[in-house]
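testing teh design pipeline on a random one, pls ignore if ur not involved
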């Protein structure tokens, strides 16, 4: 087993309450597993090569818990609409073009390159309903060493003719795709991905719950994102007053489920999500852009609900999870004001925790530098963000990175124990 030793200023958040910083420390991994972090290199490693990154910062890899790969095409466009109109005008026509694998290849290559450049080592990704394009996406992610759950999505109702399946075709294609891909890759695996309740019939939701159980697969979708969306769901399922109970009735809420948004949860729905062990992907930039709303993240954390961060490209325009961290704090402050200063806003270490550990736990022991965790790490050169005269502490340097850094500051990337 090969030993990897990184030297630099190590920063991580094993718990959300504060940064743990080790100045000029050693991060040691054997194979893909971290053995420990040390101020002095233990004797037994003295003959091993050390990758010395000088005064750079070394942090865990970033986790993007909700992103639409095909929407990378139109990121930064069309953000003056509300969700349901935005889907009709931008998302659906763009996604339809992924019927053409050659078109898909161009954009999925660009998407995966951008993810890697932005320091995203783990991601949960929507494809389109097309099986060939989704398999291509998975191949490209594997090649570029991005650990991901990716999904052929399902949409068989309330969808435009040019982007709609029959229920039979939707389920048959999904099972064929699962069988094709579940054991094919090292870094990439399939996730059951109903687009959201409005575009999936009961027949499809039920069949997807069965497929998830049959093949032990994770599940990825949207929940309680938008008042327009929720109105459609209430109309179709008048027996339930929330999205969570609808998903649960089809066995789609499990400890391996990630649901994006959760902006308007009922008290009962919060309890349900916690009991089922679902992870919520908080996508602050998207929530503002498509005018969806402000989710009660503090309340979720206080209840013990698992929360990670997502870019939600192209609801969000930036793939950078540092921006999601900064905007999670920002949006939580608006929520603090809106709640009459009752729901405390997030701290910077908490936001960093959400973007590393919060998402990382969905992939196993991922997201910090504690012994036994998988080695995912980024090397950050923050010299362009200030001047040496600033004399910042490591806590201040990482805070500035979260607010000001971009892909140009990321100079090294390790995924599952390997330099990528
Ligand atoms: N709900 C259903 N589809 C989408 C989508 O593409 N983006 C977002 N943000 N919400 C959705
Ligand atoms: Fe989304």
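output:
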């Amino acid at each position: 087993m090969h030993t990897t030793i990184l030297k630099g200023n190590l920063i991580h958040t094993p718990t959300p309450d504060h940064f743990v910083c080790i100045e000029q420390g050693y991060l040691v991994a054997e194979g893909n597993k971290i053995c420990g972090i040390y101020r002095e290199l233990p004797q037994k490693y003295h003959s091993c090569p050390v990758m010395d990154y000088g005064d750079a910062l070394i942090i865990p890899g970033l986790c993007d818990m909700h992103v639409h790969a095909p929407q990378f095409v139109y990121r930064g466009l069309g953000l003056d609409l509300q969700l349901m109109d935005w889907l009709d005008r931008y998302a659906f026509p763009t996604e339809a073009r992924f019927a053409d694998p050659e078109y898909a290849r161009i954009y999925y290559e660009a998407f995966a390159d951008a993810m890697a450049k932005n320091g995203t080592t783990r991601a949960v990704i929507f494809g389109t309903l097309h099986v060939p394009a989704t398999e291509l996406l998975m191949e490209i992610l594997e090649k570029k060493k991005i650990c991901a759950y990716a999904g052929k999505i399902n949409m068989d109702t309330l969808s435009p003719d040019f982007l709609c399946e029959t229920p039979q075709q939707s389920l048959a294609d999904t099972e064929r795709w699962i069988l094709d891909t579940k054991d094919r890759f090292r870094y990439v695996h399939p996730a059951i991905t109903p687009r959201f309740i409005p575009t999936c019939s009961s027949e499809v939701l039920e069949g997807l719950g069965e497929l998830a159980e049959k093949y032990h697969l994770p599940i990825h979708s949207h929940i309680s994102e938008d008042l327009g969306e929720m109105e459609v769901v209430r109309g179709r399922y008048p027996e339930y007053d929330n999205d969570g109970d609808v998903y649960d009735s089809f066995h789609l809420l499990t400890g391996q489920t990630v649901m994006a948004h959760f902006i308007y949860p009922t008290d009962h729905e919060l309890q349900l999500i916690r009991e089922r062990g679902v992870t919520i992907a908080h996508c602050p930039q998207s929530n503002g852009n498509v005018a969806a709303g402000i989710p009660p993240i503090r309340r979720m954390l206080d209840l013990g609900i698992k929360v990670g961060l997502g870019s939600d490209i192209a609801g969000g325009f930036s793939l950078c999870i540092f921006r999601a961290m900064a905007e999670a704090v920002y949006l939580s402050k608006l929520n603090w004001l809106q709640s009459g200063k009752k729901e405390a806003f997030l701290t910077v270490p908490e936001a960093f925790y959400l973007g590393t550990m919060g998402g990382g736990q969905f992939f196993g022991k991922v997201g910090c530098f504690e012994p036994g965790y998988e080695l995912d790490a980024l090397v950050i050169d923050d010299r362009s963000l200030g001047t040496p005269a600033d004399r910042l502490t490591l806590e201040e340097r990482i805070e500035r990175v979260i607010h000001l850094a971009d892909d140009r500051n990321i100079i090294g990337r390790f995924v599952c124990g390997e330099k990528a």
